[in-house]
Recover the amino acids of this structure.
């Protein structure tokens, strides 16, 4: 990794100015994401998260699915222009990571551990947060910019069919990524932490 963990956390932003370049190979990228998915902690080892990495034509195809799905929802051509431009920005990136939840995994664990049944849906949300933050920070450490989108459930069925993904999986989010064309402005974070001695 080219950045320390702290530097990667600071550098990581929701970046919408993506380019179709990467500083690492597809193989290195896939290995990095796979390692995080395998090693990310989850309560009672629930591991209910799943990831799908879309590259090349499949990345472009995803954003065309989003575009055509939203075109049917936004019936005003003038209003659709800004949506169209946003989708162009996501498609301009190098690839997209799809974040999934496996509800059956949660149901199985609820049956296996009935005393904790009410906790598993919340723990599944925590798994998604850990995966998302860990992957986003690891990408940032390599100088790769990203953002997270949530066009689910509108696109779920078409995405599952197009990429041969189990219809039983629940799509949580879409993360387009690539080298940054520019960097967002720093945030004002003075109110986030209060220290009292």
């Amino acid at each position: 990794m080219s950045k320390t963990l702290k530097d990667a956390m600071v550098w990581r932003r929701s970046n919408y100015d993506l380019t179709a370049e990467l500083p690492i190979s597809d193989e290195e990228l896939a290995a990095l994401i796979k390692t995080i998915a395998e090693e990310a902690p989850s309560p009672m080892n629930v591991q209910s998260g799943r990831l799908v990495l879309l590259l090349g034509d499949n990345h472009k195809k995803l954003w065309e699915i989003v575009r055509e799905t939203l075109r049917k929802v936004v019936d005003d051509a003038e209003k659709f222009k800004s949506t169209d431009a946003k989708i162009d920005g996501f498609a301009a990136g190098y690839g997209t990571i799809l974040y999934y939840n496996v509800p059956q995994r949660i149901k199985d664990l609820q049956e296996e551990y009935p005393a904790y049944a009410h906790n598993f849906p919340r723990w599944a949300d925590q798994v998604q947060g850990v995966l998302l933050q860990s992957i986003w920070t690891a990408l940032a450490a390599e100088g790769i910019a990203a953002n997270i989108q949530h066009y689910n459930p509108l696109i779920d069925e078409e995405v599952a069919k197009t990429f041969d993904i189990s219809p039983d999986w629940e799509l949580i989010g879409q993360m387009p990524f690539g080298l940054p064309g520019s960097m967002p402005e720093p945030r004002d974070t003075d109110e986030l932490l209060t220290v009292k001695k």
Summary: The longest helix spans residues 120-141.
